[in-house]
Amino acid sequence: xxxxxxxxxxxxxxxxxxxxxxxxxxxxxxxxxxxxxxxxxxxxxxxxxxxxxxxxxxxxxxxxxxxxxxxxxxxxxxxxxxxxxxxxxxxxxxxxxxxxxxxxxxxxxxxxxxxxxxxxxxxxxxxxxxxxxxxxxxxxxxxxxxxxxxxxxxxxxxxxxxxxxxxxxxxxxxxxxxxxxxxxxxxxxxxxxxxxxxxxxxxxxxxxxxxxxxxxxxxxxxxxxxxxxxxxxxxxxxxxxxxxxxxxxxxxxxxxxxxxxxxxxxxxxxxxxxxxxxxxxxxxxxxxxxxxxxxxxxxxxxxxxxxxxxxxxxxxxxxxxxxxxxxxxxxxxxxxxxxxxxxxxxxxxxxxxxxxxxxxxxxxxxxxxxxxxxxxxxxxxxxxxxxxxxxxxxxxxxxxxxxxxxxx
Length: 408
Ligand code: NIG
Ligand code: FE
Known about the structure:
β10, α9 (255-261) and β11 form a beta-alpha-beta unit. α9 packs parallel to α10. By secondary structure, this protein is α/β, with parallel strands linked by helices. The chain contains 14 helices and 16 strands.
């Protein structure tokens, strides 16, 4: 029998009921669905009922109860864009960048992504799993219940598969893996076309081994071209993979438009997207993913988030956690940057880190809000929503549940 449990005495719960109905578009404070003196009833992995305890239906009165007295309950955070499995670090490169050497210049000198690739190729699977799990725990302790992790620091089949195997071994929150073999063109290949052909053959094996259902590509000068990306992504899509793109990050490559054209789940970074690109995305189901910590670390412009949101786009925030452009796992900092630098409102930041992230992962009907039928992914703490994304570090989390199971 499925385990049912009634969490009662919740000071306030954020259900996101209104935002859920709007699929995360143009959310305002009223869409947060705040309920005081609330009850949350969980049936196995899903939410059965949520609302004021005083209105709890008679038929649920016999369900075992647990008091969450004094707690504020929130939907679990979704981090829909990370590169969490890697070996080594890029501390010295960080120092160089601070002295004025650009991210692109470091890459040209053989540093950047290639240096993490070298370290990751050398690492054992067990090492990647143990460092990866530690990083996962860090996210969970902040209330993250869904986490996307990309491969992309292997750039050869053996290491890409090792990374995907490591991702598969990680436990506790919901983990969604993405194949980012197209993160850079390894030195061993003469042309983009030659490497992309090799990636297509890897896709087949990744699918058979059920290591990933999503494909990402870094479209940028000196990385992958828009034409190469279009061909590659179409093949991946025909094979049944969901698509996402590192789009218009350092220059305008028109990859945001490509994401819309191919009905990709998300276009990520989108800093250099222009008005027309934004209008196209806003009218589509593709989610714009903002990664302001990377912009902060790289001294780049921030994406025109206001324009995306005001035009009615689906949008998400994520850490982009990786050893180069965004070595932080701090959700609180990312949301703070979104408010300070991108003028996002606090309700928008909450929606971006929950329903928005779920949309970017194709899971909005399954998780991201605390409404009946959605996955019971939530966390509790002692502070009210207004103190989040304010001082660069969110309030301490007391408990975290994913699919109804306590994971922290
Ligand atoms: O999202 N843009 C490409 N990939 C990462 C950076 C990876 C790295 O520098 O190691 C990003 O910013
Ligand atoms: Fe990234």
